[in-house]
Design goal:
Keywords: Hydrolase, Signal. GO terms for molecular function: hydrolase activity, acting on glycosyl bonds. The chain has one domain: Jelly Rolls, CATH 2.60.120.260. It has one helix and twelve strands; from the N terminus they run αββββββββββββ. Bound molecules: calcium ion.
């Protein structure tokens, strides 16, 4: 039955692609101008987007506004408001099943959308949940904040220092980009999200 582990790997990698560095591409904005980009990292393809709304507002935070998009016509508006539409965050259950020794790299572009949002930070989480559902009890694998926002888009990149914990293996990988560490009435634009999985070297 030597074929069995190979089959498992093949299933886990279904819908994924290999990055230039040999890792698995989980989310990519691609050219961000059209459909077919991996898990809609550029927020352009709303008809098949895997992005969900999390938090108080149930409206998806994807905004069509070419002037404020980093690339293409759309971006995620991540906000912390105490009046409707309240705070808006985005998250997605990815198509990646967590593998032993996975090390994740995340990057995205972010900027402030209002003058009073300068120096705010956008936060990101990489996690899994008890039942593999978005609203299930989460366990964090990695998290962080962007650099302080300015009026111009800046690239934020992070790479995990150590591989995923053993108890995470076999679970669905989730990502969220949220406004928890923004001040009241903060509003940010996030575009061109990228998430890849590499392997730790022993
Ligand atoms: Ca875009």
């Amino acid at each position: 039955m030597k074929v069995f582990p190979t089959l498992l790997v093949a299933l886990a990698c279904l819908s994924s692609a290999w990055s230039d560095s040999g890792g698995i591409v989980i989310i990519s904005p691609g050219d961000a101008e059209g459909s077919g980009v991996m898990n809609n990292g550029g927020f352009e393809d709303e008809s098949s987007t895997p992005w969900k709304s999390v938090g108080k507002n149930t409206n998806l935070a994807i905004t069509a506004d070419k002037e404020n998009a980093y690339q293409g016509e759309k971006y995620a508006k991540v906000q912390k408001l105490f009046v409707p539409p309240y705070w808006t965050n985005v998250a997605q259950p990815t198509e990646h099943v967590i593998q032993a020794n996975d090390i994740y790299e995340i990057s995205f572009y972010a900027k402030a959308l209002r003058d009073n949002s300068n120096n705010d930070k956008v936060s990101w989480n990489i996690f899994y949940t008890e039942d593999d559902k978005l609203n299930g009890k989460p366990t964090l694998i990695a998290s962080g904040d962007s650099t302080p926002l300015t009026d111009a888009y800046e690239l934020n990149s992070f790479k995990m220092n150590s591989p995923v914990p053993e108890e995470a293996v076999g679970k669905i990988l989730f990502i969220s980009i949220i406004s928890d560490h923004m001040r009241d009435h903060g509003s940010a634009a996030v575009d061109n999200v990228s998430l890849t999985a590499g392997k730790s070297t022993p």
